[in-house]
Design a protein that fits this description.
Structural class: mainly alpha
Strand content: 5-15%
Oligomer: single chain
Number of helices: 14
Strand order of the largest sheet: 1-2-4-3
Order of helices and strands: HEHHHEEEHHHHHHHHHH
Radius of gyration: 19 Å
Low-confidence stretches: 307-316
Shape: globular
Helix content: 55-70%
Number of strands: 4
Length: about 325
């Protein structure tokens, strides 16, 4: 039995052990580069959380289904998740963000690294925010909407971490609006294939993208300044316009690539429908009912602004 065949019979492997099972040297390099490029977000989260210990051992399960999880001291990815990131398809960046040179930002792994960075931060914030503890206090009939709220909370914390990391690494070369566009471009290709209708534990794709879009528009350039949730600053309005253009161009490319396929939908149309509802959703009240408990148990502030619909005023 060769190493790749052996891997398929193992439940969980340390990351270094998993690398040894990959016989193709190019794929082995790509997987190692992908994970090594993404795990530094743990240090960034630690600094932002006042020195909290986020050091984690990385494990891989031989599972073709894409998934990830985290517990205190370890991260676990499925082999299917890593393969999905290595197989992402996306257009040249200048096709959707005019003025961004492709030769600088279309290295094969950059979009994939940013996507995995978001996944890691998402999973770690489930731990930081004590979501599983809070879930134990929720009535059975509220479980689904509560799970959806937890996922959005982690989505947005993850998006914020990717944005701050990109500020740090790209801020010397690009302006604030371009960095926001790049982050949305990076995350679009990870989020767009998510289930359109959602699941029992995860909300529909359009809602997840809507809230990330909102977050990237309203975050302040200075981390010490609160987000512009009332959408009154000129830079917020500029960000809304620029990111909406990026979303439309990304979706247009995605539609052309998946023409004729079942259940692709149209994100632009679904987003506009959501906007006409003023960005509201049935788990808004759920979030407000549990945010205080999350704050108390985790010792971290909760961002109630993520459910405010004021961003719609900037798109009309």
């Amino acid at each position: 039995m060769d190493r790749e065949e052996l891997a398929r019979h193992q439940v969980r492997m340390e990351f270094s052990e998993y690398l040894e099972t990959i016989q193709n040297p190019q794929k082995r390099w790509a997987v190692e580069s992908l994970v090594r490029g993404a795990v530094p977000v743990l240090r960034a989260i630690s600094r932002r959380q006042g020195g909290r210990d986020t050091k984690s051992e990385v494990y891989v399960t031989a599972d073709p289904n894409p998934n990830a999880t985290a517990a205190e001291g370890y991260l676990e990815f499925s082999s299917g998740l890593l393969d999905q990131f290595l197989g992402l398809e996306f257009p040249y960046v200048e096709k959707v963000i005019p003025g961004i040179p492709a030769d600088r930002f279309l290295r094969y792994l950059l979009v994939s690294v940013a996507g995995l960075t978001w996944v890691i931060a998402h999973e770690i914030y489930h731990l930081i925010k004590k979501h599983s503890e809070v879930e134990e206090t929720v009535a059975p009939e509220a479980k689904r909407l509560t799970s959806w709220a937890f996922e959005i909370d982690s989505d947005l914390n993850g998006a914020s971490e990717v944005f701050r990391l990109c500020q740090h690494t790209l801020g010397g070369d690009f302006g604030d609006i371009q960095i926001r566009q790049l982050v949305f471009y990076f995350l679009f290709w990870t989020m767009r294939p998510l289930p359109r209708s959602g699941t029992e534990t995860h909300p529909p794709m359009v809602r997840r993208i809507w809230h990330v879009f909102t977050k990237l528009c309203t975050l302040s350039e200075d981390p010490a300044v609160p987000p512009d949730n009332s959408v009154v600053r000129e830079e917020t309005l500029l960000a809304i316009s620029a990111l909406w253009d990026t979303l439309q161009l990304c979706e247009g490319w995605y539609q052309r690539q998946h023409s004729g396929q079942h259940d692709v939908g149209n994100l632009g149309e679904e987003m506009m429908s959501f906007l006409q509802q003023h960005g509201s959703s049935e788990f808004t009240q759920t979030w407000h009912s549990i945010s205080g408990e999350i704050e108390k148990r985790s010792g971290t502030p909760t961002d109630v602004s993520i459910w405010q619909p004021d961003l719609v005023n900037g798109t009309e």
